[in-house]
Hints:
mainly alpha; homodimer; two-stranded antiparallel ribbon
Amino acid sequence: MENARLAQQIRFIVEVDRLKDVFRQTFVIGSRRRENDAEHSWHLCLMVLVLAEHANTPDVDALRVLKMLLIHDIVEIDAGDTFAYDTARMADQHEREALAADRLFGLLPADQTAEFRALWDEFEARSTPEAKFAAAMDRFQPMLLNCLTEGAAWRIHGVTRDRVLARNAHIVDGATEVWTYAARMIEQAVAAGHLAK
Amino acid sequence: MENARLAQQIRFIVEVDRLKDVFRQTFVIGSRRRENDAEHSWHLCLMVLVLAEHANTPDVDALRVLKMLLIHDIVEIDAGDTFAYDTARMADQHEREALAADRLFGLLPADQTAEFRALWDEFEARSTPEAKFAAAMDRFQPMLLNCLTEGAAWRIHGVTRDRVLARNAHIVDGATEVWTYAARMIEQAVAAGHLAK
C-alpha cells in the first residue's frame, strides 16, 4: 500500500527540481556561466554555517535561517528571477511571488504548506533576527560573486556604486561586520574600474 | 582595520564556489543537463525539511543533518565526482577525498576546520542516526532523478537492477518508508524499460 503523504511530498521534491533551471544575473567565479537559484541557495546556506558567529543577534537560530534560505527562491520557479536592480520588474515582484508561493507550497500536505509559507513570509518581512541575517547573506553573496568576476553583472546592466550601496545597505541590519567588509569590497571594485561611480 | 578571521572565512566561501563546476552523472529533470554538486546539495537539504518525519529516529537532529549535507561533497572540488557504480575509481575514493578534506576544510580558522572535518567524518562513517538519514537522502535523490529522466544515467553506464538495489539498500537504515517507496520506483523503472534487469 502506498504512503499517500510521502508520495505527495515526493511530488513537491520533483517539482522544485526546476529551481536548477532558473538562472540569475550573477556569474559563477570559475566557469563564468550564470548561476542558478538552486546552487545560489546552497551557497547561502554554507555561508550561514561559516558566518553565523557574525550575526548581530548572537543566539540566532541557525536552523530557522537555513530553512528560510533553502526555500526563499522556490517562488522563482513560477515568478522568474527579478534582477536586484530592475526597478520596473520589482514593482509587482511581491505579488507575482506570492501567487507562486500559493501554488508551489500548496503542493505539500497542509501542515507543511503552512510551515513553508510562514518561513517565506518571515524571510520577506525581514523583521526577525533570523530573517535579517538570512537577508544579509542573500545580499552579500551576489556582491561577492560580482566582485570576484570583475563586476561582470554590474557592467552588463550599467549598475553604479550608489545603487549597489543603497540596495545592499540592509546587510548592516543582519551582520554589521559583514557589511563593513562588503562596503570595503565595493570601494575596491570602484577603484579597480569594475563598478561605475 | 580588517577582521582577519572574517577575511579567512570569506576566502573559504569563495573557494567552495567551485563546487558549482563539479558535474555529476545524474541529469536535471527539466533541461536534461548534468547536475552539479552544489545544486544536488541544495536538493538534499530541501528533502530533509520535507522528509525528516520519515527518519527512522524520530528526534533526528535536523540541523546536524543539514550541516553534513551542505558540506558532504565539498571534497569533490579536489577529488572529483566518483560515479556510484564506478567500482574502479571507488577503490581509492575515500583516500582521495580525505586529502581534499585536509586542504579545503583547512582553509577555515582552526576551530571550524575541526568542526567541518568532524561533520564530514560522521557523514562518511554512517553510524549516527543523523548520518544514516543524511546518507539515505544522498542515495534517494539521484535515484529519483534517474527515474524521472527515463533512467538516463543508468542506461549510459549500463547499470542493472541488481546493482541499483545493492548500492541503495542502505536507505533502509535511515528511512525505512523512503526505501519502500524507492524499491517500488526501481521495479517500475525495470517494467518501463528504463533500467536493465
